[in-house]
Amino acid sequence: AVVVAPLRVARGIQNKVLGVMGMGKAVGTSEACGAGIEASVGRDLDAAASAADFVKRIEAVVRDPQKATAMGAAARACVLAKYSWNAQLGRLDRHLAPATETVLVSA
N or C terminus of the chain: which is more exposed, having fewer CB within 10 Å? Predict the structure, then answer.
């Protein structure tokens, strides 16, 4: 299955798209929607600038189930690596570690 998200206006990270990617589904979206997501276009998701390009890209994935399956697997791996709780909390820990070490040393 391919999930289509042709949002013309997007603000920040598109959580609905990330949710679908996390379920291992291939996603086709507009460039505006994909811009807020840290993913590789063509591998983790597909994005297009124009309506004609959008249709062409979605048709290519729909007609090739192996490509859709591979894109879905890559999408899930991307979400787990960059947007899961562990990934996000790991980033927070890396930022807080120097401050924590400073406080412990000076105490």
Answer: C
